[in-house]
Design a protein that fits this description.
The complex is a heterotrimer. By secondary structure, chain B is an alpha/beta fold. Chain B has 20 helices and 15 strands. Chain C has 2 domains: about 75-115 and about 175-340, MetI-like fold; about 115-165, no CATH class. The chains are: A mainly alpha, B alpha/beta, C mainly alpha.
């Protein structure tokens, strides 16, 4: 009798029981660390005769990052904005203005959206301004801007190349399975391994391309000594690993287009461009948006590549936010490390949620229409 | 007797003399020893660990982590009470952060009772400074560390140059040799190779250069901070000159020097591509490795170059050397040899089981005993550099390892000169010194080398960073600790 | 017939076909060349690496097995232990993540949850209470935890009648997925403290639990839309016949979702197998995994390229073999996953 009632109770509550383990795990491993980390970010670690103390110091760690002695490290060194900086700034601010206008004048205006945008847009504007003012010849990027560079430039390159490859592979060709398999391999290499591999490959004197460098007169050039080439090599390594991911998913998206629609359109005499715009893109766009979101979420956390390739150098040029936090951690500056980590969490959460709300959802909605 | 039974017998005798009872005493005991990834340091520990295991039944597990993570991993493991590591081989300068919360076992009694260790044979500097803190012994030295300059004696002869005595000499030597083919492969080579990679082991290099300008009145004058008010000494004309020298060495170096770690520069030097380098004692023994070195018998070592002008602390400017400003000058040049890092030493977790502690101590003692140590320090791959008087006195072991008598005299002479110098610079040993050196100094120097900061800005960054850390941790405590370590009264 | 006109409709012009093949082939080179370089470096001696690039074994240089010997023989157990640890940790955490994640995804796909905002608020309040008790009042954590649970359990029925807005499935889903945004470095120290209190640091269990939690959101994400796209007629009729939900899930739904499960499982396995940062934080001696061993090859003697190459290769091998075996499911599975939106 009891067994039956137990079974019945389990069945009745099966939904909650199904979801319970997941919720419990997240609560213990995400919520709890989040709170503790937040508290750490507000305290200072010190070794004492009894072990250690964590004393509450309020927002001092953050102040140090934003205006204090670590400002050069976190935000960068500012100088006059150069033309490229102006271009970027105008672009971003223009985009934000346009998005705001569309929201206010549009039909989906609501309180939650307003609050979200009031938080997100000023943040983006500030990040863009910080990036522009630290971009110039005599200026230096800080870890915030470097991370943004990795995310935006890296994911863009990965998306363009991955989609292009997928498009090529989706054509009527043989050996698609072979390509799918081979192109998937880079995903399987551990990031630390990729970092070392690329360090080997990029070596100007004993790497495989050294004859090429010598011919080009670059034999004495060191990619690790110039901030932008160092960042580029990091992006290259990251792209090599993640283009397969985008490729696989976009290939599936291209393959899943309705054959009938395509053939019908061709029969009607539609040109390739028209087909792409009216049939392919609407079907593929939501997938593209989602895969970019997944990539962006992961890209914010980049650490293995800059750590192994250049140890964060030259100077602090290739330090991502996670690496910055990690370096602070190594000297047991727990408060400083947590402050940087929390800033990363803040920026990446707002960026990813905004991207989801402003790009992914509209594309899904458009497809449904 | 076969080699191995000889070792086992030595061990048994050694242990017996140490009062640590007979072989098989530690049967079933496992000791987890943590150090950084070798082969330097880790390899000899593993090798000696296997011998020790055979003789005593203990199991020695050598766990390795990357160098820049060693401090944090060990401290976190012990201070959080996890205690999965029983002993560590690490830097004596970190001792202060481990001893203060009572994480290291006091080894004074064991050392006093340990005859096989031959404590008197350990050079006084290492015995008193690297092993002790507040007059108690907490660590056993297995390696002696001093920075020196190495030069190609054949190149010097060819160019008619002498071993550099000042940093200006060093630059002149580098300039003369740069671009020439130094190893017969028809390719231009480099005048100077110094490890400058960030977040690695490069942040001692600048102190090696700067100390000659900054400290002249003896060890207790200190080379990092003022002993009166903890004001950083890295913001004055002397340090500016040092930064200038450091930056200038880059002109005669490989273009990716900023990404080279000590491992890379050692390879470059031993394959003959550099005329000069600044490093610990490893180059001496690596150079004589016939299999991997192209510069056997072509390497000279010299005490750290000095300066004919030193800092007058009150005015903050450089003044010429004379009897009052440079009482320890040699030929009118002030040398300040830098005991960088202090020499790898073994410490035991105070919270480990007693049996484990005994086994760990016995193991470290075994590694440090003359029979083992004198052999290991002659092999470059071990990373162990000489620190025992017997290693300096007798040339036999060195000649047997492949050094010519002249080379051995030269190499050991340089180390001895450094050891015996009254103006030796002690490495920073105040609480959380990692934050001063590995964070503030390393980052500022990396930015300087990358061209991000000019000399005044670099000095300001270091000054600000150090003052901030001192303020956060408490100026009085830091000052007291600093004065205690360098023996300032 | 011109090269630029297709022979048949639906086929490409020969010129375009050649172009496509060329470009794809170029990218194949880009993918395979670094791996080839790793392969031949694993057979090089230290001196050979320093001399300059040698491209072809047996022709440019004589391959040697010294690196392989060192890794497998000299290091022996020091290689085998991390390898075994990696295998155990990756496989168990993948299975766990798939189990927990699929169950949660299924529940979210089939049922409607409408948690009250107020209840969530009460939960957070109880949580904060527990932490305050431990941190400020110095109460032992098991006691504090029980107190917090008690407070929550009592408070919910008390406030049962108070009106409050409700959240929906979409919000729960978003919350689960947004866990992925949390950078590991934020969570590392608190998790370390948590495990240290529980006494499971440097064990397989600690890392398995962590990886399961970190990867589970991906499983939920990818499997959710998969389940949504499966029509529930079969399940409904089975329910009418009296089968329990659990049985339906295990015996009917999972087999249908097999391609998605395999594809997602493979992805999660790869993520666990390659993870570095959390493993570095949470392990010291016993639970070291292989990525740590690879990273540690950067010794003071310079990066030991040859040993590193061997380690990279033995890391890729099992994953590649597994992928080849299961490759049919990769694209199909991910296709029907969340990406369809």
């Amino acid at each position: 009798m009891n067994r039956e009632r137990l079974d019945h109770w389990i069945d009745h509550n099966s939904g909650r029981l199904f979801i319970l383990p997941a919720v419990l795990l997240i609560l213990s491993f995400s919520l709890f660390p989040l709170i503790i980390s937040g508290w750490l970010a507000l305290s200072r670690f010190k070794i004492t005769a009894d072990g250690f103390t964590l004393s509450f110091i309020g927002e001092l760690n953050f102040k140090k990052l934003l205006t204090g002695s670590q400002e050069f490290h976190f935000l960068g060194t500012r100088a006059a904005i150069d033309p490229i900086g102006w271009l970027l700034l105008v672009l971003v601010l223009g985009l934000l203005a346009w998005a705001s206008w569309r929201f206010v004048a549009g039909e989906r205006f609501n309180l939650l959206g307003l609050i979200g945008r009031l938080i997100a847009f000023p943040l983006f504007g500030a990040l863009a301004w910080n990036f522009a003012t630290t971009l110039g010849e005599s200026a230096r990027l800080g870890s915030v801007s470097t991370t943004l560079f990795y995310v935006i430039v890296g994911v863009s390159i990965q998306f363009v190349l991955g989609t292009a490859l997928a498009f090529l592979c989706a054509q009527n060709i043989k050996g698609r399975t072979f390509f799918r398999l081979v192109f998937f391999i880079p995903l399987m290499v551990t990031p630390v391994g990729i970092a070392y591999t690329f360090r080997m490959l990029a070596d100007m004197s004993v790497g495989p391309f050294s004859p090429l460098w010598k011919v080009l007169g670059l034999g004495e050039f060191s990619w690790a000594a110039d901030p932008w080439t160092a960042r580029l090599v990091v992006v290259l390594g990251d792209s090599w690993q993640w283009i397969p991911f985008i490729f696989i998913i976009m290939l599936a998206a291209f393959e899943s287009q309705s054959r009938d629609e395509l053939e019908a359109a061709e029969l009607d005499g539609a040109g390739p461009l028209q087909i792409f715009r009216d049939i392919t893109w609407p079907s593929v766009a939501p997938v593209a948006a989602t895969v970019v979101l997944i990539r962006v979420i992961e890209a914010f956390k980049i650490v293995d590549l800059p750590n192994v390739l250049t140890n964060g150098g030259p100077g602090i040029a290739t330090e991502s936010l996670t690496l910055h936090s990690f370096i602070e951690w190594r000297a047991l500056n727990l408060g400083g490390s947590a402050a940087v980590a929390y800033s990363l969490l803040f920026i990446s959460t707002i960026a990813c949620v905004s991207f989801f709300q402003l790009v992914v959802l509209p594309m899904r909605r458009a497809r449904e229409r | 007797m076969t080699g191995r039974s000889l070792i086992a017998t030595t061990l048994a005798v050694g242990l017996a003399l140490a009062g640590n009872a007979t072989a098989q005493e530690f049967d079933g005991v496992t000791v987890n020893v943590m150090t950084f990834t070798g082969p330097q340091i880790a390899e000899p520990l593993q090798r000696r660990g296997a011998e020790f295991a055979e003789a005593t039944g203990a199991t020695i597990n050598v766990v390795t982590v990357p160098f820049s993570d060693l401090y944090q991993k060990l401290l976190t493991d012990w201070i959080s009470g996890t205690n999965s590591i029983d002993a560590g081989v690490f830097a004596p300068q970190w001792m202060v952060d481990y001893v203060t919360p009572g994480l290291l076992e006091d080894l004074s009694e064991r050392v006093a009772a340990d005859e096989a260790l031959a404590s008197d044979d350990i050079a006084p500097f290492f015995r008193e400074f690297s092993q002790k803190f507040n007059d108690k012994t907490y660590m056993l030295t297995v390696d002696g560390d001093f920075h020196m300059v190495y030069y190609r004696s054949d190149v010097a002869e060819e160019l008619g140059l002498e071993a550099p005595k000042t940093w200006d000499d060093y630059l002149a030597f580098a300039a003369a040799a740069h671009g020439k083919d130094l190893n017969g492969d028809d390719e231009a080579d480099y005048g100077s190779c110094i490890a400058k990679k960030r977040n690695a082991q490069s942040y001692w290099m600048i102190t090696s250069i700067a100390s000659a300008y900054i400290q002249s009145q003896g060890t207790s004058q200190g080379a990092f901070f003022s002993t009166d008010d903890m004001a950083p000494l890295y913001d004055n004309e002397g340090f500016a000159k040092a930064l200038g020298v450091y930056g200038a060495t880059g002109e005669y170096a490989p273009s990716d020097e900023i990404n080279l770690d000590v491992g890379d520069t050692r390879s470059l030097f031993t394959s003959g591509r550099c005329a000069l380098t600044l490093d610990w004692g490893d180059i001496g023994t690596l150079a004589i490795d016939a299999e991997n070195s192209s510069v056997v018998d072509k390497v000279g070592a010299v005490i750290l170059p000095g300066s004919a002008r030193v800092l007058d602390r009150e005015s903050g400017t450089l003044v010429d050397c004379d009897a009052t400003t440079c009482p320890h000058a040699i030929d009118g040049i002030n040398h300040a040899p830098f005991a960088a890092f202090g020499g790898w030493s073994g410490g035991v977790n105070s919270k480990a089981d007693d049996k484990v502690k005994d086994a760990a101590y016995a193991f470290f003692s075994y590694v440090s005993q003359p029979a083992q140590s004198n052999a290991d320090v002659t092999v470059g791959a071990t990373g162990f550099n000489p620190y025992r008087l017997s290693q300096f006195e007798s040339r036999d072991a060195w000649v047997e390892a492949g050094m010519s008598e002249a080379a051995a005299d030269n190499y050991l002479g340089a180390i001895q000169a450094s050891l015996n110098s009254p103006n030796m610079v002690l490495d920073l040993r105040i609480p959380q010194n990692q934050r001063y050196q590995q964070i503030v100094l390393d980052t500022a120097i990396a930015r300087f080398l990358a061209g991000e900061l000019d000399i005044p800005a670099t000095m300001e960054a270091i000054n600000e960073g150090w003052s901030e850390v001192t303020e956060e941790l408490g100026m009085d405590e830091q000052l007291e600790a600093y004065r205690a370590t360098i023996g300032a009264e | 017939m011109s090269l630029f006109e297709s022979k048949r409709r639906g086929e490409m012009a020969p010129a375009s076909k050649w172009l496509v093949y060329t470009l794809l082939f170029l990218w194949t080179l880009v993918v395979l060349f670094p791996l080839y370089w790793v392969l031949i470096t694993s057979f090089k001696l230290p001196g050979q690496v320093g001399d300059g690039p040698d491209y072809l074994p047996f022709i440019d240089y004589r391959p040697s097995l010294h690196a392989w010997k060192y890794i497998f023989v000299d290091l022996g157990s020091d290689t085998f232990r991390p390898y075994l640890n990696s295998v155990i940790i990756a496989s168990i955490s993948t299975v766990l993540a798939m189990t927990v994640g699929s169950m949660a995804a299924y529940a979210l796909a089939r049922l409607h949850f409408r948690p009250r905002l107020l209840s969530i608020g009460l939960f957070l309040g109880a949580f904060a209470l527990v932490i305050w008790l431990v941190a400020q009042a110095g109460v032992a954590w098991p006691i504090a935890l029980s107190a917090g649970i008690a407070v929550f359990v009592i408070a919910v029925p008390v406030f049962a009648r108070v009106r409050s807005p409700r959240l929906g499935n979409g919000d729960i889903l978003f919350w689960v997925i947004s866990q992925r945004i949390l950078p590991p470095v934020v969570a590392a120290l608190p998790i370390y403290i948590m495990f240290q209190q529980l006494g499971i640091l440097d064990t397989h269990l600690a890392i398995i639990l962590t990886y399961t939690t970190v990867n589970m959101p991906i499983v939920v994400w990818l499997m959710f839309d998969f389940f949504v796209s499966i029509p529930n007629d079969i399940e409904e009729s089975a329910e009418l016949d009296g089968a329990s939900k659990l049985r339906i899930f295990i015996e009917m739904v999972l087999p249908l979702a097999r391609p998605g499960l395999i594809a997602t499982g493979l992805l999660v396995l790869i993520l666990s197998w390659n993870e570095y940062l959390l493993a570095l934080f949470l392990s010291t001696a016993k639970a070291q995994t292989i990525p740590l061993l690879v990273a540690a090859q950067n010794a003071t003697r310079g990066p030991q390229w040859w040993y590193m190459s061997v380690l990279i290769l033995i890391m890729i091998l099992p994953v590649v073999s597994l992928t080849v075996l299961l490759q049919r499911f990769i694209s199909k599975g991910l296709l029907l996953g969340a990406v369809k939106g």
